[in-house]
Structure formats: C-alpha cells, structure tokens
What we know:
By secondary structure, this protein is of the alpha+beta class. The chain is built from 15 helices and 8 strands.
Amino acid sequence: MSTAALELKSPPITFEGIIRDKLRPDVQRIDHEGFYPENFMREYGEAGAFYPVTETGNFYQAIENCSLVGETCGSTAFSIWCHNTCLWYLTNTENSYLRDKFLHRLSFAKKLGATGLSNPVKSFFGIEKMKLKGERTANGYRVKGSLPWVSNLLENHVFGGIFDTTEGPVFALFDCSRPGVRLRPSGPFIALEGTATQAVSFLDAEIPDQMIISFDAKAFLAKVKAGFIMLQLGIGLGLMRGAIKDMHKANKTLGHTNCYLPEGPEVFENELINLQERTKELASDPVYSAMNNEEFLKVLQLRLDAAEITRRTTYAGFLHQGSRGYLERGSGQRRVREGMFFDILSPSTKHLRQWIKSIKNN
C-alpha cells in the first residue's frame, strides 16, 4: 500500500483528540503541582484552535475551541483566553510592524502571548491606580512599575498592557525577553496554579515605538473590550459542560438520591444552550458589540450571567458526586475552585455590575 493511501486512511487529528492525548493526562499535575502545559498550548494552537480570533465572522469558533479545553481543565482554558486576548489586540492594531512580526506567529502558537489589563481597566473605573508609568524618549518610552499577576507568561512570551504617560495611557506589546523586564512567580493559589502566573516588574524598560499597539489606549480599549470579555466565555462554557458530564456520570450510580437535589443536569443543559446562543449572536461582530452601547450592555450582562450560572453548575456537579467530589483528585471540587476564579476574573462580577450601572446611568 502506498504512503499516500496510508495517509488517507489515517484519522485526522481533532481538537478533542489533542485534548484527550496531550492535556487530560496532565490535569492533576496542573492542578496540584503548578505544571504549565506549554507543549499542549503550542500543539493546540498549531492545529488551528487560536487563529479564528483573527477571522471576521469566525470569532465564536475561538470561544468554542477554548470551551473544549475548559471541559477538561478550566486552568488551561484560562491560559488560552490570555493568549487569545493578546491575539485579539494584534488583530485590531493599526501598527503594521506588530501585525507583520507577531500576528501569524501567535495565530499558530509559534509565539505565546498574554494580557495585563486587569489593573488599567480597574484604574479607568477609579478602583485602582495605574501601576505602570511611561516617560517619553527619543524612540519610544521608558516604563517603570510592576503588575502583580499576569498569566500565561514565560520569558519568551509577549503580552499586551497599558502604561500611563503625561499625554494619556498608551497600549503596548511587551516582550518579556527585553532588558528591564523581570518575571517572578506569583501565588500559591487555591486553583489556576498551572497558568504560569507571574509578577512583572519594569525597571526603566525601553519600549520602542514599533511595539506600541495604540498611542490612545482608551480609544483602542473601546474597540476591543467586547472581544476581550467574550473570549472569557470559553472558560465558563467549558466548566459548565464538564460539570454537566460529571452529573450524568454520577447519576448512573447515585441517581436514586440525586433526584432530590434542587437542580439536575437537564436544567443546566438548557442554561448552557441559552448562553451559547447569546454568545454566537454577539460574537458575530465583536467590534460592533463593543462600539454600540446597547450591544455592549448585552455583552456585560452575558458575562455576568455566565459567571452566576457557571458557579451554580459547578457546585451542582460537586453535590451530584457526593463524597467522591470531595476527594483531593476529584473533578467536583476542582471545577468549583475553577468556577470561583471565573467570578473574580477581571472584569469580576462586582465590576460587571458597576459597569452595567454606569452605562445605564449615562
């Protein structure tokens, strides 16, 4: 038989297959030992899981690809969100140098990226002060300050972030291998340990103009904010799917008692379908969903609803498992912890409520 015939008979590599073979065996190491699955991230991206972020009309597929990972490991789904968000910034920048050098590489995980917007977004609402300051130089900016938590970050990664200047905040792509940029592991945390979360210090780091995503960070954020938020939904949708599977599995042996729980898997399956349909609609044009106030309110409400429903679903999955869900290596308690993080991931549920109120009042 020819080599070509053998290749035709070989089953195609699927996203589910990569997750099964390359991620699932490491879930306990990720959760308990803080193992960062870099090889999986690169293989999943190389297979095409990330590039839909860059495609007009295909944005929802990136959310779906993240949710497939979230079914198995919420921690790694979060790492994918970090990477996809950086890719979203590069998709929307007008800086041709950044697009030419990084867009394709991040699209297929030749380079991995992250996002450091938690502090600046909070600062725009008066919750925190901006932690990074930039001073203009002849060819760019000199940046100093520190960010306590940036995830999916190693020394050969890049991340999008904002620093303040006398002319206003500037949005940049930071290269962690550059002089003056230092990383230090953060934590320990009760979950999400395997996400390469670092404290990042800028010690008069030189950021050249060619690394500027936008000289007007607020205007750029207004354009990308809906995509930034909707990409997070892959985490919640995946956690819900995993918890629903846990419920069905537990019901095979505990269904005679689980029937007395107030909510079963059928309830959450309907909730999941509703969230997916709302996400598909708003993700069809994420820039429009950001720039139109009525649509952006829907995005904020969707993210808030997803957090609330994910919390209920993961806890219900834990209850369905009973004492098995309380085991150290059990999926029930792990998903509960990962779901708790989805509540506080910026924008957190309290920040979302504040944001919704501010838009409605204006």
